[in-house]
Amino acid sequence: MKIDDSIPWRVQEWKERTDSSYVKSLDLLRRDSGLQERVHQIDDAVRVILFDAAPADIESLRKIEFFPFVEATDDFFLALASAMQGSYKSAYFHARSFFELYLVGIYFLSPDIDEADASGWMKSNQDTPFFRKITSTLFRKPYFSRANDELGFRNQIENFYYRMSDVTHTKASSFRIVGLRIL
After folding, report:
1. Which of 76, 86, 111, 145 supports an S-S bond with 21, CB 3.0-4.6 Å?
2. Phi, psi of 77 (to 5 degrees)
3. CA distance 157 to 146
4. CA distance 43 to 27
5. What one-character DSSP code corresponds to residue 53?
6. HSE (CB half, 13 Å, CA atoms) of 28?
7. How far is CA 159 from each of CA 12, 83, 135, rounded to the nearest angstrom?
8. Could you give phi then psi for residue 86, rounded to 5 degrees?
9. This prediction's pTM
10. For residues 98 and 42, is the Cβ–Cβ distance under 8 A?
11. Distances from the Cα of 83 to the Cαs of 137, 152, 155, 178, in angstroms?
């Protein structure tokens, strides 16, 4: 018996559909230079945001290393790959995880967050802080507070996060897999 014979037909159907979607996505990227440029800009932004913007001093590295930022990078590329396969719900899941991990990294690097809390989280002995706790802590800081005052940044971040949460947690029929599209 071949391995493929043991896979249920629905899984086979899904694999064929995602393979086809991925090939079509690559073809579109090859043909559309504007889309190629947008993907490169996003890729560059993610690299700059995650590695250049994250503090690299000894104190920060001792607290959480680069774990959340490296993990976030993996989630970003999994989101992109999932979208290219037509697996939009998976793409949302990974995009939300990317966003969460980046914010968690910034949160734990904050000087007023105890190193023991960061260490406990890194060792999986403490829960990840809830999104509301992270945003309320970050937006008390002058840099984020100014961004919020000038751009309404906190509201935008929260709305974006909760919209992704609606999809990843399937908030009723409007967010079901069938008919799901990129926001």
Report:
1. 86
2. -70, -30
3. 14
4. 19
5. S
6. 11
7. 37, 21, 12
8. 85, 10
9. 0.75
10. no
11. 32, 29, 26, 14
